Amino acid sequence: MSIEIRNVSKQFGSFHALQGVNLDIASGELIALLGPSGCGKTTLLRIIAGLETPDAGSIHFSGQDTTQVHVRERGVGFVFQHYALFRHMTVFDNVAFGLRMKPRRERPNEAVIRAKVMELLSLVQLDWIADRHPSQLSGGQRQRIALARALAVEPKVLLLDEPFGALDAKVRKELRRWLRRLHDELHVTSIFVTHDQEEALEVADRVVVLNQGRIEQQGTPQQVWDHPASPFVCSFLGDVNLFQGRASGGRIELAGGLSLDSPGDQPPLDGTPARAYVRPHDLEVRRAPPATAQQPAGADGIKARLARAIVVGPIARLELIPGGATPSADNTWSDTLIEAQIPAQQFHELDLREGETLVVTPRRSQVFFDQGAGI
Ligand SMILES: Nc1ncnc2c1ncn2[C@@H]1O[C@H](COP(=O)(O)OP(=O)(O)OP(=O)(O)O)[C@@H](O)[C@H]1O
Fold it and tell me: What is the 3-state secondary structure (H, E, C) of the chain?
């Protein structure tokens, strides 16, 4: 079942929760809706489910307008962060619930229900706890049972709203791998809401990044990671360092004389403000060479003092305070601290010490221009 979302808007009072959202989801796809708290993820999911009505726009299931179709008729399954199982029922009865509640003419007999429930319990690898009550399960087990219960009625669409949000980091990681495997077996069209970028990038076929009720970007995890469409996407997807600069002669001049290639075919007007975003692992770090008369130290990189080094396992995380030369009048070195990540082995080989001056050079950056602000 494919889903087409056409121009969907939703207001709560004067607040625009969703503004003209358009999205096509292919049959059998697993989509992650990713964005910060309050960006409209849950509202969009509830509109797709039929739990909320859009003010404008429409939802289509395989081309058929379902905007006015009741939630019960849409054939969607839900799993929510705190989707409480029925406490007084066993695991088995929880999963059987949806089947037993079907109208008499559609309801399978008890033998069929039993076979179906046991099949689902073995799919979520919990057939050995069918007789337990929810209070006797771990949080991760409860969410797997909630998923089995949602799947029991064979939904055409599965909607998951932060299903692992309340679980600890290790269990979350296990469950998202498990969810991906389950999806590969079942191919139910699924939409997964999360504010955790790692979760979205790891689980989904396609990531849809929402910001303030609008889609900022959609693409495969690799596409959004390698080619973020906006500063928002770039900084939301992971740690970044921000360096301010300006376009000049087809290049980007950052403070201190460091220059980067200008992205795209048409460089903007000289003087256009630019922002270069650099991920910590894309910064090359070396010890500052001694200054010579011709070349001041750090002219080909950014000079910075190593304030703190945190070496845990294979990675050394370096916190650097930019400085050592005077930034030009309208440029700053960097908004705050510079964060770099290098292999721990390299850190030990270079024998870096806190307090010494280093030079950092971006290997790779994402540059965005403040168009219209050029001089
Ligand atoms: N029934 C409602 N009445 C008024 N405002 C609402 C209602 N439902 C949602 N909102 C507001 O709409 C915005 C979007 O809410 P939504 O729950 O979709 O965000 P979200 O991206 O899922 O956030 P979170 O990750 O925190 O769950 C929020 O600012 C929220 O306060």
Answer: CCEEEEEEEEEECCEEEEEEEEEEECCCCEEEEECCCCCCHHHHHHHHHCCCCCCEEEEEECCEECCCCCHHHCCEEEEECCCCCCCCCCHHHHHHHHHHCCCCCCCCCHHHHHHHHHHHHHHCCCHHHCCCCHHHCCHHHHHHHHHHHHHHCCCCEEEEECCCCCCCHHHHHHHHHHHHHHHHHHCCEEEEEECCHHHHHHHCCEEEEEECCEEEEEECHHHHHHCCCCHHHHHHCCCCEEEEEEEECCEEEEHHHCEEECCCCCCCCCCCEEEEEECHHHEEEEECCCCCCCCCCCCCCEEEEEEEEEEECCEEEEEEEECCCCCCCCCCCCCCCEEEEEEHHHHHHHCCCCCCEEEEEECCCEEEECCCCCC
